[in-house]
Every structure is written in C-alpha cells, then in structure tokens.
Amino acid sequence: MAIYKPVQTGVERDAMGDAQFAAFLSGADAFEGARLERPMAPAAAARRQGSDLPSLAQHSRRIQELRADYDAVIIEGSGGISVDLAFSHETETYLPQNQVDLMLKLPETPTNIIVARSSLGTLNHTALTANYLQTRGLSARGVIIGSWPRHPSTIEKDNLDALSDRGMSVLGKIPAGAGEAFAAGIHVQPLHSFADVQEFQHHAAHWLPEICRLGERE
User: Fold this and answer.
1) Of 5, 105, 157, 173, which is the active-site residue?
2) Half-sphere exposure of 148 (CA within 13 A, CB side)
3) Rounded Cα–Cα distance for residues 125 and 93 (Å)
4) pTM value?
5) Number of Cβ atoms within 10 Å of the Cβ of 69
6) Which residues are registered as beta bridge partners of 5?
7) Residue 157 a catalytic site member
C-alpha cells in the first residue's frame, strides 16, 4: 500500500511528515508531491516561500504510477477539500485547482472518506464537504470521527446520531489522543518498538472496523 500526500506544509524538510508517520504505523510506503515549511494552506505557503507547486497533471501522473505498483493508494488530503493545490510564483496568481479537481483528473473514481471532528460545527462542515463533492459529481463513502473523547458530551453524542440520520455512514471513531506519541514534525525515527506499532495496529482495527471491511471488499 502507498500513501501519497500532494503537499505537506508546516514541516521542515528533514522532519517526518504526515505520510511518513502514517506509513510508520501501517507498514505502507510514503510519498509526497511537495513539501513547504510554512504552516499554511499549500498555495499560500508556496507564495510566501517563493516556490512553485506541482500541477494537478503531475500529481495525477504520480498517483497513477503508484497505482500501477501498489494494490492500493491512499491520498491524504492537504487541508480541506476545496483548498487550492496549485500556485504559480511566476504570475503570483492563485489557480482555482483544488483537491476535487485532482480527483477528477484520476482515471479511476476514488473512494472518498471525510474525516470530521466530533464537536460543535461538525454537522455543517461535514455537510458542506459532502455537498461540494456531489456538485462535482463525486460522493463520500462515509465519515471517520478523527478524535472521539473518552467522555463525549451530549453535543458530541447527538452529532454522531445526526450524521447517521442524515445518511452519512460513520465508518469509525478514533479515540482522542490515539497516536499522540507519533506526532509528525520530529527529525528522527520514532523511538517505538515493533511491539508498540503492532499494538497500535491492533487497536486501529477495532476503531475502524468498517474501513477494514471496505479494504477486504475492494
């Protein structure tokens, strides 16, 4: 399995990024399209740093190359779904080319999963993301709650029910604080044993049962 992040921002060049940590925990191979040190959206970071970003066509070609070499490719988004991925430093203009535009350039329709928070505002943000996908001819397979508290509030419990009531399949809930010791941005390989990673993987299978079944079916 390959993990591809189109643009990693907010992480120094020699530090481990999101894709590298996900690969460390899963056993996958990590790849990035570009890396920028400023902790900003990709286009804004490129503009401030005086760098160009890969075109959507370049991202698409790289993903297709990975698809030919791996059984599965996970594309980890760079910010929200409508965040721009392209910027030309020569013209100093933003290009209206976001992550959905990248999805539409791929020869195969991707399986899209929304990662949402549990707290107030998540119903609106999740609905806006799902609706935007629909307006572009795409859909979301479901939602993962990215940080589910040990003691959820009434609002958080109601949000979970409301997501299901609105037809959004909740594919799993990741406990708050899970993987804190594996946070991105450090300059060395995580000081964890193989047993630590195995334990994390064991728990992850219980947090995300629908994702595991989805992988088995596809």
Assistant:
1) 5
2) 16
3) 27
4) 0.87
5) 10
6) 32
7) no
pLDDT band at 47 (very low <50, low <70, confident <90, very high): confident
Residue 105 identity (one-letter amino acid): K
DSSP letters along 14-60, please?
TS--HHHHHHHHHS-EEEES-EESSSS-HHHHHHHHT-----HHHHH
DSSP 180: G
Phi, psi dihedrals of residue 214, rounded to the nearest 5°: -60, -45
Measure the CA–CA gap between 94 and 88, rounded to whole angstroms.
Answer: 7
Query: Tokens 């964890």 — which residue?
Result: 192
Gap between the Cα atoms of 126 and 168, Å rounded: 9
Contact 117, 190 (CB under 8 A): no
Q: What is the pLDDT of residues 74-124, one digit of tens each?
A: 999 988 899 988 866 666 666 678 999 999 999 999 999 999 999 999 999
Q: Is the pLDDT of residue 217 over 80?
A: no
